[in-house]
Amino acid sequence: MIRVEGLERSHRTEDGVLRVLRGVSFSVAEGELVALSGPSGAGKSTLLYVLGGLDRGYGGTVEVFGRDLRRMSEAELAAYRNREVGFVFQASHLVPGLSALENVLLPAYFGGAPPARKRALELLERVGLADRAAHPPSRLSGGEKQRVALARALYLAPRLLLADEPTGALDPDNARRIIGLLRDLCRETRTTAVVASHEPEIWVAADRHLRLEEGRVRELSVGEVA
């Protein structure tokens, strides 16, 4: 499903070149829920951007669904991002002038498919927001916005879900709801999920736990606290 070999990524800063990822290698099987942990600045978000085809300035090999991302054209990458990958970023990135339901439906318009209102409502129900469907982002809390963003990411039934701190703004009960949804999603639909999180409950729920430190990755026992 995912094969990463010798991944290197550096950024230029005022102080010189910062090596963020230093020879990262791992693989992920179809249907796995993989927790990605590590201190702030360890490269978790950078790794998710690379896997999602949002960052091409890296060295090494990254293959997803048997395709080398660096060998894909811009059009192929755009199709990959729109149809096969669901993103949940730390910021919800909801469109202010649209309702929660309309925000969930956005991928339909970008993907060229007719909007399926019933599916969008079902997803809002799964994240506990069926009663907020008509509310604009201005009437939602930070945690509610993040749950709408997750529903939007799942709308096109992506083969790969990439989530950056999806429970960071949630209270404990809703965090458990989202963790359970991610676990069920991987089991029921064979969706593969890579979830960057500081939340130990996600480490326990995951099939595997990868930890990034000083630009390198190591695998921990599931639920292990580094």
Word description of this protein:
By secondary structure, the protein is an alpha/beta fold. It is 34% helix and 28% strand. The chain is built from 7 helices and 10 strands. The chain has a 6-stranded mixed sheet with strand order 6-7-8-3-9-10, with helices on both faces. A 4-stranded antiparallel sheet has the order 2-1-4-5, with helices on one face.
Secondary structure: elements and pairs:
Layout: E1 2-13, E2 16-28, E3 33-37, H1 44-51, E4 59-64, E5 67-68, H2 74-83, E6 85-88, H3 100-111, H4 117-126, H5 142-154, E7 160-164, H6 172-189, E8 192-196, H7 200-205, E9 208-213, E10 216-220
Parallel strand pairs: 3-8, 3-9, 6-7, 7-8
Antiparallel strand pairs: 1-2, 1-4, 4-5, 9-10
Helix pairs in contact: 3-4, 3-5, 4-5
Keywords:
alpha/beta; 226 residues; 10 strands
